[in-house]
TrEMBL record:
Name recorded for this polypeptide: Glycerol-3-phosphate dehydrogenase
Molecular function (Gene Ontology), one example: glycerol-3-phosphate dehydrogenase (NADP+) activity
Residues at the active site: K203 (proton acceptor)
Documented EC number(s): 1.1.1.94
Originating species: Sandaracinomonas limnophila
Length: 341
């Protein structure tokens, strides 16, 4: 007789992915390495139809093959949420409230919520997991975040990658990490949900700073100092806003995430910053990109939170002044030089 545990292993895990951008596409590809069934919600009907017909996303990571035996695409969100165990959010944070506006607590009941988002909810200035918990009355132990140094473009190329899954209930993080482990990806679980999430948000702001200084002609020597000072700013912020005794900021879920975004050619935030450094206005830099730089929204929230705690964070301040205060990038970075060591 087949044992219940063995039978359970053979039943595919039902997962919903919300969002049709690069990271959603990469996550669908990773998950398809394992025994899963995916309901994938995408906002544009034309993209849904295209994937159904050609098994490729027409707009992002267009080379990735979408396995039709494992993935079903949906345009109606409530259909994509029926009967799933995990709901993965992969929509830029700024659009979460409007995109989820028709959902209710019952859509999330008994499900694990995984945020793959590295951004803040604007105006409310809160983390996505915090917003979800309040909006849909979710138990935080059912939530986790995906962090770590990982660009969608490298997943498309099956380059060896690592992810950190964080949840206050480590078993929740571990069970989701198990679904990601595959040929080219290793995931591990930790308990520091808000710490990892804040770090993932702040590193996008630092990448904007790196891009600005690159655009202005600063070199590797300067960037190394900028990034090491940035890590100290992250520590000052976390120690004040969300202190924890067992947090290793040098591990890949924190420092690694900062490094990949600060140095990679694939970084959206660095590309955005580079354009600002080269003299583009904020609006024109955004229009040039067909992707979203989360740091643009996040810097306002993080700046306001840091001021409410009387924190002195010169790199964050400089990016805020350039992006929202219309400060001249050259003058602002000239001022910042004096604060670094
Ligand atoms: N890309 C990566 O390597 C990684 C990304 N992340 C995070 O994943 C999240 C999603 O980013 P990513 O997939 O990169 O996004 P992309 O920049 O690849 O794509 C932008 C996404 O935002 C959607 N969008 C744009 N405008 C709106 C709007 N007004 N309302 C609703 N949706 C909108 C787009 O939909 P449409 O095409 O219909 O316009 C598209 O799905 C972000 O929080 C990011 O930080 C995390 C780790 C890695
Ligand atoms: O968070 C991300 C990768 O870790 C995506 O942001 P970037 O594209 O700016 O790196």
């Amino acid at each position: 007789m087949v044992k219940f545990e063995e039978l359970k292993k053979k039943i595919p895990t039902q997962i919903t992915v919300l969002g049709g951008g690069s990271w959603a596409t990469a996550l669908v590809k990773i998950l398809c390495e394992n025994n899963v069934k995916i309901k994938w919600w995408i906002r544009r009907k034309s993209d849904v139809d295209f994937i159904r017909k050609y098994n490729h996303n027409p707009s992002y990571l267009t080379d990735v093959v979408i396995n039709p035996r494992k993935v079903k695409t949906y345009h109606k969100m409530s259909d994509a949420l029926n009967g799933t165990e995990y709901i993965i959010l992969a929509i830029p944070a700024a659009f979460i409230p409007s995109t989820l506006k028709d959902l209710h607590a019952k859509h999330f009941e008994g499900k694990k919520i995984v945020s793959a988002i590295k951004g803040m909810i604007p105006d409310e200035n809160i983390l996505v997991t915090d917003w979800m918990e309040k909006a849909f009355n979710l138990p935080l132990g059912n939530s986790c975040v995906i962090a770590g140094p990982c660009h969608a473009e490298e997943i498309a190329l099956e380059k060896q990658s690592y992810l950190t899954i964080a949840s206050p209930k480590v078993e929740t993080a571990q069970s989701f990490a198990n679904l990601l482990n595959s040929r080219f990806l290793q995931a591990h679980a930790i308990g520091d949900l808000y710490g990892v999430e804040y770090c993932a948000v702040i590193k996008n702001i630092i990448a904007i700073a790196c891009g600005i200084t690159r655009g202005l002609g600063f070199g590797d020597n300067f960037q190394a100092v900028l990034v090491s000072n940035a890590m100290q700013e992250i520590k000052v912020f976390l120690d004040k806003v969300y202190p924890a005794t067992e947090r290793d900021l040098n591990s890949s879920g924190y420092l690694g995430d900062l490094l990949v975004t600060a140095y990679s050619q694939f970084s959206r935030n660095r590309t955005f910053g580079n354009m600002l450094g080269k003299g583009y206005s904020v609006k024109s830099a955004q229009m040039e990109m067909n992707m979203i730089a989360e740091g643009y929204y996040a810097v306002k929230s993080i700046y306001l939170i840091s001021k409410s705690h009387d924190l002195n964070l010169p790199i964050i301040d400089a990016v805020y002044n350039i992006v929202y205060g219309k400060a001249n990038p050259k003058e602002e970075m000239g001022r910042l030089k004096g604060h670094l060591k």
